[in-house]
Amino acid sequence: MQRSCGVLYPISSLPSPYGIGSFSEEAREFIRFLKQAGQSAWQILPIGPTVFGDSPYASISAFAINPYFIDLDQLKAEGLLSEGELQERFWGSDPESVDYGALYQNRYLVLKIAADRFFERGMGQQEDYQSFCRKEQYWLEDYALFMAIKQLEQGKSWQEWDLPFKTRNKDALEQVEEEQKELISFIFFQQFEAEKMWNSLHEYAGEHGIDIIGDMPFYVSLDSADAWAHPDVFAMKKDRTPMEVAGCAPDAFSSTGQLWGNPVYDWKKPDHAMSWWMLRMKRSMEFYDVTRIDHFHGFSEYYAIPYGEKTAEHGTLRKGPGMSFFRKLKEECPLIRLIAEDLGNVTEENTKLLNDTGIPGMKILEYAFTSWNSIYLPYRYDHHCVVYTGTHDNPPVRAWIEELNDGSRDFLRRYLNSMNSDYGQLTWDLIREAYRSTADLCIIPIQDYLVKGREAQMNVPGTSGNSWRWRVLPGFLSDDLAGSMHDLSALYGRLGSSEK
């Protein structure tokens, strides 16, 4: 990696008059802002379809795109929607918070209007749509069937479906394909428009010298098209129930551990899991310039809990595929660029795998100021890493500073050589420290540039209901902010290659 910098800013948090950020002109405006600010990268959260809980890390597909991110103004420009059809819908009352209930009630109704016009006008026969359906057939048909049956089954998990659907009985699936042609075509349309718009936005970023850093969850949800369509990839019984699910072993923070519930991969039959993963990685290469893999330690070892357990107390630590996975990846995707989320659970095995792969790991400044021995203190960094002030799971820096105990806050000030009593100024001092560090890549969450507090935390781990909602108000992309960011980038040798 060359020395550079970027911003962590979820698509969903972009300003929008339609309740949630999308692949819109606001996204292009942000790309232009990044270039003006001397940045080289835009890091986003996973863009897969979300379900109850709204977490992008609990998607129902590892290959599909969230239809909420379709740019409605672009559909209007294509003549598929009218201004009145957009304005008559309720998209939420708070421009700084996503109202997922309002989205669910209104977004699909508007998209269905657009889809009906698309097919009525014969646009489904056009080569770009037909080409998309052929190219993406390997995942698209299963995903559309999964979504169609899920609707027929009143939204129930596929684990609770009628047996012919659950076990993918050929006759039952063919009957759904025949009887639900309109619904399946609607799902195809959503993915066609979403991918077309994402590819256009990605190309626009490249034209402005901005790399897109995507985010890939390690596990998939049990209630996902992937687990339903590819049970041989996972540790499943013949009746399609999991043998084991993922979690975290009991530790000092939790006496019963963490029960995540994701199906674990069946690495005893590596051909199935490996082939599926290679398809996933190739799609990631199409979507992003760089991919951050969440829970990278899962390739080294993973904690498996018998299905049906109420806690994680009786799990087993098992070996992951290790370097065999990355040797295969190098054969299949020699140009792929990765970042490893290697936080927590620092073991000799995990560290060795990271070093052997040569993939850069992550350093979080909010974890650094607990002791002089912290591995996250900048003076300990090797250059081959990515430094963040915090991630989507952390409070914004200002809130973090406010909540530090006096000793840790004093340590922070001493380390930064800053006696600022204003927490906003101290936030910028920590941002400066990230830029100044030896880490090749520096990524700052947009919340920290805006000096936001707890209200802007994207996710509060262990809670539900209020995460993944925060949004940015229009008008924050000021020349003053771009100038401050550009000054830091220039001062610490992180300017984009187009400016050097």
TrEMBL record:
**Top-level taxon of the source organism:** Bacteria
List the Gene Ontology MF annotations in alphabetical order.
4-alpha-glucanotransferase activity
**Catalytic activity field:** Transfers a segment of a (1->4)-alpha-D-glucan to a new position in an acceptor, which may be glucose or a (1->4)-alpha-D-glucan
Hydrolase as a keyword of this entry, yes or no, is no
Q: What is its EC number?
A: 2.4.1.25
Q: What keywords appear on the UniProt entry?
A: Carbohydrate metabolism, Glycosyltransferase, Transferase
The family database entries (InterPro entries) matched by this protein are listed as: GH, Glyco_hydro_77
The record's Gene Ontology biological-process terms are: carbohydrate metabolic process
Q: Which NCBIfam families match?
A: malQ (TIGR00217), PRK14508.1-3 (NF011080)
Q: Which family does it belong to?
A: Belongs to the disproportionating enzyme family.
The identity of this protein, by name, is 4-alpha-glucanotransferase
- Species the sequence originates in: Stecheria intestinalis
Q: Which gene encodes it?
A: malQ
